[in-house]
């Protein structure tokens, strides 16, 4: 009887652990991500993100060079052991010098998609660059990720955050949702209260994610404006900014990759 009970306990324990298997996402604003990135720089980026399961990229150049850069990054990742796939959004419906693309790259072993994602047309008139969303299926569980790059801090990004918050309220869902990107606003500001009221939490709190142009003493970090927000049916395991600079002497070379740090979230689905 004891052996039978123990066996059932171990089966249930294994099922519980398996159903809450950890997943990781990186969100990264890669400045001017296009043909200006060298093969060496693309390989350095691949090393930085290779341990994640999903990568959300902002600031992909709208022209052909942006699509090429994403494809090359995915190819570099495929050479490092795991099989990856990617999607690239259409250019956002923005003016010439504002329009960009978004991209997702993910490991295909346990993650599937059923479509190629869409820019959210409902937000077109309310934001400069409408978010790009894609539904992922992780061992059968649906996870929607919104990828977003706001307008600059002096152009009222707060109004865009409020518009996205209203959109998420109206389009509330029982399945897990993640909102990742560069918001140009610190998550501690009052504009995020609406998002937090409907159950979203920030992956990192008041952590600087942008790089200064030059070191101030030993300090090379600037503003805390990138983040990953997750809905109440996502369980955070760990959240942090990935500091690939490490010391001031590396700042100039690091800025060739981007002037933003990637944000990392390790999580499970409830």
| CATH fold group | Deoxyribonuclease I, Chain A
Supply the CATH superfamily name: Endonuclease/exonuclease/phosphatase
| Overall tally of domains | 1
**Low-confidence parts, pLDDT < 50 over ≥5 residues?**
1-19
The chain-level structural class is: alpha+beta
Largest beta-sheet details: 7 strands, mixed
Euclidean distance between termini CA atoms: 32 Å
Task: Please identify the top-level CATH class.
Answer: Alpha Beta
Helix content: 25-40%
Order of helices and strands: HEHEHEEEEEEHEHEEEEEHE
Summed over residues and divided by their number, the pLDDT gives a mean of 93
Number of strands: 15
| Global shape | globular
CATH architecture: 4-Layer Sandwich
Sheet-strand content, in percent, reads 25-35%
Radius of gyration: 19 Å
What are the salient characteristics of this protein?
270 residues, alpha+beta, Deoxyribonuclease I, Chain A, seven-stranded mixed β-sheet, six-stranded mixed β-sheet, 6 helices, 15 strands, globular
Please describe what this structure looks like.
The chain has 270 residues and is an alpha+beta fold. It has one domain (23-269): Endonuclease/exonuclease/phosphatase (Deoxyribonuclease I, Chain A, 4-Layer Sandwich). The protein has helices at residues 2-19, 39-49, 64-78, 157-170, 193-197, 251-257; strands at 23-33, 54-60, 84-88, 101-107, 111-113, 118-119, 132-138, 141-149, 177-182, 201-202, 211-216, 219-221, 226-230, 234-241, 263-269. Strands 5, 6, 7, 8, 9, 10 and 13 form a seven-stranded mixed beta sheet that branches. The chain has a six-stranded mixed beta sheet with strand order 3-4-2-1-15-14, with helices on one face. A two-stranded antiparallel sheet has the order 11-12. Strand 11 (211-216) and strand 12 form a beta hairpin. The longest helix has 18 residues, at 2-19. It is globular. The two termini are 32 Å apart. The relative contact order is 0.15. Residues 1-19 have low confidence and may be disordered.
């Amino acid at each position: 009887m004891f052996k039978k009970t123990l066996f059932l306990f171990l089966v249930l324990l294994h099922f519980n652990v398996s159903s809450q298997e950890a997943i990781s996402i990186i969100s990264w604003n890669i400045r001017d991500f296009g043909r200006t990135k060298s093969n060496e720089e693309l390989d350095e980026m691949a090393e930085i993100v290779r341990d994640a399961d999903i990568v959300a990229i902002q600031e992909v150049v709208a022209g052909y060079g942006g699509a090429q850069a994403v494809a090359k990054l995915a190819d570099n990742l495929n050479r490092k052991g795991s099989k990856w796939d990617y999607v690239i959004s259409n250019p956002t419906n923005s003016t010439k010098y504002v329009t960009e693309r978004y991209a997702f790259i993910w490991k295909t072993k346990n993650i599937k998609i059923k479509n190629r994602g869409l820019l959210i047309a409902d937000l077109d008139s309310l934001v400069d660059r409408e978010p790009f969303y894609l539904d992922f299926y992780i061992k059968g569980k649906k996870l929607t990720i919104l990828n977003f790059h706001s307008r600059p801090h002096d152009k009222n990004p707060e109004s865009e955050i409020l518009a996205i918050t209203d959109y998420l309220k109206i389009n509330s869902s029982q399945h897990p949702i993640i909102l990742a990107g560069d918001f140009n606003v610190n998550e501690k500001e009052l504009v995020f209260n609406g998002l937090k009221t409907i159950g979203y939490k920030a992956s990192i709190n008041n952590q600087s994610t942008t790089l200064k142009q030059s070191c101030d003493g030993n300090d090379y970090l600037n503003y805390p404006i990138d983040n990953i927000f997750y809905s109440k049916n996502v369980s955070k395991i760990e959240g942090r900014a990935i500091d690939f600079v490490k010391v001031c002497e590396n700042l100039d070379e690091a800025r060739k990759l981007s002037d933003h740090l990637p944000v990392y979230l390790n999580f499970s689905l409830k």
